[in-house]
Structures are given as structure tokens and as C-alpha cells.
Amino acid sequence: MVARLSAFLKNAWAKEPVLVVSFIIRSLAVILPPLSPYTKYFIMINEVTPYDYPMPIHNDGNMPDVPSNCVLAYRGKIPSPSRSE
């Protein structure tokens, strides 16, 4: 099996080296990211990032369970940016 694979790779390299290099690069692009040490941090960041953000609701007056000042309540929850100068 190894002999056939090495013969195939030698033949492919002799005929189409550009294709062989492109397949090697593509294989590395698929294999290496899960082995990266940064993968752990990407997973941690994605777990704590919310999928849904609170959005102000357009109140047309026909929603008794939504407070009339919901936009102001939403804006009050946004932290103000601090300048570090």
C-alpha cells in the first residue's frame, strides 16, 4: 500500500507539481487549525458571545406588556465607553 502511494505521488509530482503542492496546502489548511493553540481561545470566545442582542421595540401602542419607554431602558443598559488617555 505504501509502495503504491509513493509511486503515485512520485508520478503525480513528475507530471503536475503545481497540483500536488496545491493539494498539500489544502490538506494543511484543513488539518492544522484544530491543532492550533488559538483554537481553545476561539472556542471560549464563541461560547460567551451572545447570539441575540436586545433590540429596541417599535411601540405602536397596541402592546400592553411592553413598557412605553423600552428604548430608553435599552439605552440605559449600554455601558458608556471610557477613554484612557
Automatic annotation (TrEMBL):
Subcellular location: Mitochondrion inner membrane
Keywords in alphabetical order: Acetylation, Electron transport, Membrane, Mitochondrion, Mitochondrion inner membrane, Respiratory chain, Transmembrane, Transmembrane helix, Transport
CC annotations in GO: mitochondrial inner membrane; respiratory chain complex I
InterPro entries reported in the protein's UniProt record: NDUFA3
Quaternary structure annotation from Swiss-Prot or TrEMBL: Complex I is composed of 45 different subunits.
Family classification: Belongs to the complex I NDUFA3 subunit family.
Name of this chain's protein: NADH dehydrogenase [ubiquinone] 1 alpha subcomplex subunit 3
